[in-house]
Amino acid sequence: MGFITDIEKGEFIISTSVYAHFLFSNSLILIKKIFPFFDSIEIGRWFTIFFGVSSVSILYKIIYTITKNNWSSFFGSIIFGLSFTFWRNTEIVEIYTFNIFFIALFILYSVKYFQEKKDKFLLLSSFILGISLWNHIQNILLIPGFLFLLYHSKNWNLIVKSISIFTILFLSLFIIPFFKEESFLIVFKAVSNHNINFKNFPKDILKSIFYLIFNFWHFTIFGIFGIFLLLKKHLELTLFLLINAIPVYGFATLFSVSDNYVFFLPANFIFAIFISFSLYSLFPKKIFKLFSFSILFIPLFYIMSYHFSMEIEKGYEFNEQKKYKGGLKYYMLPWLNNNVGILETTIKNSETPEPLDWMKKSAKEYINLRIENGENLNDLENK
C-alpha cells in the first residue's frame, strides 16, 4: 500500500535507504506525473504486470541461448510464470517482479558473454547489476557471480572497464545519504526485529525446500538433475548460475521472516533454467513435449493443496486465524480473487489479530488523498 500512497502523493523519493527502492518508487511516480489522469492503483498494477511479462520473455531468451530449442525455452518460461512466488507477485504492487527484470537482464547478458565472448555483453552486465542496486540492495548477493564472470574474461582492459561501471553505480548510492547527512548504513540496514538464529537452521532448510517444491511441484527433481546435466555440458556457465543462486537461496533461508518466500525469487528464476535444460536433455523431443504439458496441472495442484490443508485441523485453525486477509486461500492460491485488501480493512475499521499499523497508516493516507480529490469511500472499497 505504501507504494500506491507514494504514487498518489506525486512527490519523488529522494532516498536510497533499504525501504525506499529508489528506482521502483520514482518510476511509478514519474508515470503518474506524465499521465495524471491514470489511477494510482492501476499504474502500480500494470507496471508490475508489464515487467513480470518482460521477465518471462527474457527467461525465454536465456534458455534459447543455452539450448537453441524453442520448445524448451517456451516450457521454461511458462513453468516459472506459473510458480507460486512469481505468479503472486505479478498480482500485487510490489518491487519483486520489477527487480527480477533486472536480474533477468543481468543473467541474459552474462550468458551471452559466455557464449559469444563479445565485450559489450560484459559491459552491459556490469551496468545492469550496478543500476539494479538502486532498485533493491539484495542484489549485492549477485556480486560473487559477477566476480566469477570477470574472472572468466581474463581481459584486463575489459575487466577494469566493467568494474569501473559497477563501482560508480554502487558508490553513487551513498551520494544522497552524504548530502542529507544520514548514516551510510541506511543503504544496507533494515529495521527488523528478526535475528538470524542458527538453531532454527534445520527448520528453515525444510521450509525453503517446501517453498521450492510448492513453486515447481513434480518438476523440482528435474531441476536438480538439470544442474548436473548442465555441469557436464557448460561447466563455467553452470558455476556462474549456481554462484548467483546459492547466496540468494541461503539469505532467504536464514532471513526467515513471515514473507521471506519472496526473497527466493531470483534463485527460482535460475532454477527454472535448470528444469528446462534437464527435460530437454533427458527426453526425446516427442516425449518432452508430451510430458511438458503436465505444467497445465499446476493450478490444479494449488487448488488440491488448499482443499487438503483445509481438511487438516491445523490448516482449518490457520484459515480461521487469517480470515481477515482471505484465510488459507491467500497463502496457498497464487491468484488473488475477492480477497480482503488493506483498503477494505481500513475503511471498515475491521479488527485484525495481527498489528498492521504501518499498512493502515499508508491506507488512511491514501484514502484521505482520494477523498480530497472527490472520491467516495464506496468507490475506494471496490478498488
From TrEMBL:
Keywords, ordered alphabetically: Membrane, Transmembrane, Transmembrane helix
Keyword Cell wall biogenesis/degradation: no
Membrane-spanning segments: 12-31, 43-64, 70-88, 95-115, 121-151, 158-179, 209-231, 263-283, 290-308
Keyword check for Acyltransferase: no
Any Pfam family hit: TMEM260-like
Record-given protein name: Glycosyltransferase RgtA/B/C/D-like domain-containing protein
